[in-house]
Amino acid sequence: MTGAVISGLIASSLAVLVVRRRSSAVVLVAVQSFVLGLYALTQHPRTSAALAVTGAIVIVKALLLPALLLLTVRRAPKERPIATELPALTRLMIPLALALALERMIPRFGFTSAGVEHTAVAMLALGVLTAVVRRAVIFQALGFLVAENGIYLAGLSLAGGLPVFIEMGLVFDLVVVVSVAAAFAAKIHERLGSGDSSLLEALHD
Amino acid sequence: MAVAEALAAAGLVAILAGAVGAAMGCSLRASLTPQSAGAALLGLAGLWVLVSGERVGAGFHSVLRPAFGIDPLSGFFLVLIAAVGAPAAVFARDALTDGAQGRSLALATGFFLLVLVGFVCARDPSTLLGLWELMTLVPAGAILVARQDREARHGVFVYLAITHIGGAGVWVAVLVLAGHGALGGHALGGGMAVFVACMSLLGFCTKAGLMPLHSWLPRAHPLAPAHISALMSGVMIKLALYGLVRVLFDWLAPPGLWVGIVLIATGWLSCLGGVLYALMQHDLKRLLAFHSIENVGIVALGLGASLVFRDVGESTWSAIAFAAALLHALNHALFKGLLFLGAGAFAKAVGGLELDRLGGLLRRMPWTGATFALGAIAISGLPPLNGFVSEWLTLQSLLHLGVGPHLGVSMVGALATAGLAASAALAVYCFVKVIGLVLLGLPRREECAEAREVPIGMRASMAFLAAACVLLGVLPGLLIPALASLGPEHATLGSSPGVNVPGTGSLPTLSITVVLTLLVALLARLAGVRRTAVSPTWICGQLTPAGLAWTSAGFTKPLRLVLGGLLRPRRDARVLASAGVTQAVAYRAEVPHLFDTLLYEPLSRRALRAAAVARRLQSGSLRAYLGYLLALLALLLALARLELLG
Q1: Among candidates A62, A50, A70, which has minimal Cα distance to A163?
Q2: The pTM is what?
Q3: Phi/psi at B283 (nearest 5 deg)?
Q4: Is residue B133 part of a domain?
Q5: Distance, CA of B384 to CA of B365 (rounded, Å)
Q6: C-alpha A176: how far from its chain's center?
Q7: Nearest to B620 among A102, A131, A204 (CB)
Q8: Residue B580 placed within a domain
Q9: CA B298 to CA B395: how far, in whole Å?
Q10: How far apart are CA B425 and CA B143, in angstroms?
């Protein structure tokens, strides 16, 4: 994996933390997933079944799930600004610092490429931190997609890759999470006029 | 050993068949009779092992692989289970009403018996702990089958909460012991032994109902149907002591003198506290429940004395104190079983068991009344019944502790002796009240006046227990040497019908019984020849209505006044007057349970406050939960980096 690709993956993950428009963030993650899918297809020669699975994963992560999220965004166009959202610089700096700290603390897995290993850990951390710092449900779903892309990248770096059924299982989980998040976002927007998940905290007993 | 194995197998099959019969909808007779027979067969198997000293089945091991076996100590506790379980099942046959609820209770009875038997026969940590939990849950289920009112639900909640919190100590102790291979291997010693001793004391003493960990017992025991109460009070709390004996005497290297002294202290507190609060109760079953605390305290005194004797090198006395504790455990099972069954019989005949609303039942229910009176004499520790023998043996042990060369140990022995003597006297006081209010005098309500004797099965089970109380009072020497041999030093005592304890002049129980029997017969004959004129009680020319008879509170008022500073009784008297004329007087008095008001209620309030604080962490926000997850991950990684994690 070239330095440019690694930089692109990290930059897109950071961008999801700061961009304001939900559709822009969805497109960024879709591109990130597509790039990772291409990288997977260019890896060592694999069986036709493995190629089919990789292709399916690319289609799901780079096309279907982003399309679902974009559809959700389109159906709720007049998003009320989220007043309690942290400023963009803070949203960027805090996760960046935490991701760097985590990346430093996690022991080496022993991948052949140190750069890929650092990138995978950073994407995983940034994805989870996106879900922590962003209040809109769509962004939280995108955070999970970024985190899963980190895991996927780590899987690609393993000798022989991840077993097919684990890859399929991960994608299935992702489909469920994103579908529920999309439905959830649509519903709370319909009721509250906003996709801000923190509005729901006052509902618990 | 084929005999004991065959008896045990037949017993288990019979109990199981009875329980399955209850589940399949068979009649109470068809389901509870096999259970009773099965319990008896298991008791015979236990007796066989106890007398022969051989072992059946697997030995203890620390691996999590289910195994069962019987050694002489388990054999003794099987006898104890059978002694109460068999008559309790017969009693339940006539006491329960045939129907869905009765069959559910019959099923619960069989299941409870199996769990109790399984616990004393378990030979590995997983089975032991699993059955320990079931031993808590099954009676809770039985209570809820019998009663679904708010009081019952609250009582069961408190019972489950306290016994599970305490039970955590049992889990920790047994798992640590298993982790070190101490179950069936070398006894655990060192600092870990101290930790295990603390955990086991916390866990087993909670289930045994020792003060101050007893708060669940007077709430839960009175709620259960009579035969389940008999099993809980007579057997279940003894099995907690069985667990304590296993840990402290078998699986731990002597952790030090302090364990024995702690047991003596809790026993002392339970003896005195139990009997004092029993005296202040107005409900018969609740009174009996407090007496269970007192008697478990006496057993703890014996066990504590045995540990102290072992530590100061007096092996014979250690065995004597151990035998005294086990004998009292068995005796208490017998007379407490009898008393709870008697209370159940009264409840079936007259309804409620409020002491101030009973009376005159000896004349109307002579079998039940007589056996109940026998149980009351036994629990009061009066000769020639079994309670006297084991309390005497415990008292001798404590007296010997008091005359030893170590000043601190002597003081502990002297205080414990005084405590036991005081509790024995107060127990007599308490049961004079019970006999007076329940059996004697005039009936205080219509149901008592019309009470009829209960069916033959209930009477037979009480008669069996009463006979056992007499037998163990007259011939305790048949059992004591076998119990002493189970002790830490496996001492050998001389065999005799009475109690033959070195250096005490012994106790000729048979002779005492003969003399007392002759004396009673003589008094009865003298009373028979005296002419008595029957006339109404003289009370200013009026008839004596029930409201003017002695009450439970009135009988114990002298003690309440003397111990007012300790018991802190509350009374509230209000005079309702109109135009200067008194219309009514409202009077309310109670003796609050100080352990509840001073210990458990503040603890519970603080725990709820802490829970409210902890609840803030549960915000319902996905973001917050992810934050916790990341923080935990970061903390673990940091600890790993600093090499503070394995």
Answers
A1: A50
A2: 0.78
A3: -115, 135
A4: no
A5: 24
A6: 14
A7: A204
A8: yes
A9: 9
A10: 33
Does a structural domain hold residue B203? no
Condensed to tens digits (0 to 9), the pLDDT of residues B567-596 reads 888 888 888 888 888 888 888 888 888 888
- Binned at pLDDT 50, 70 and 90, residue A84 comes out as low
Please judge whether A133 and B621 are an interchain contact, meaning their C-beta atoms are less than 8 angstroms apart.
Answer: no
- How many CB atoms neighbour CB A4 within 10 A? 8
Domain boundaries, chain A: 3-76+84-203
Rounded percentage of chain A residues whose pLDDT exceeds 90:
26
- The string of pLDDT tens digits covering residues B91-128 is 999 999 888 889 999 999 999 999 999 999 999 999 99
Q: Does B53 have pLDDT greater than 60?
A: yes
Separation of CA B129 from chain center: 20
Q: Report yes or no: A203 at the B interface, CB cutoff 8 Å.
A: yes
Contact B267, B212 (CB under 8 A): no
Q: Containing domain of residue B558, as a range?
A: 552-590
Q: What are phi and psi of B48, to 5 degrees?
A: -60, -50
Count of domains observed in chain B: 1
Residue A85 clears pLDDT 90, i.e. is over it:
no
In a domain, B337, yes or no: no
CB nearest to A131's CB, from B626, B637, B641: B626
Q: What is the mean pLDDT of residues B443-462?
A: 90
CB of B634 less than 8 A from some CB of A: yes
DSSP lists the bridge partners of residue B582 as B577
Asked if A107's CB is within 8 angstroms of B621's CB, the reply is no
Tokens representing B493? 């005592």
> Closest chain A residue to B622 measured between Cα atoms?
A132
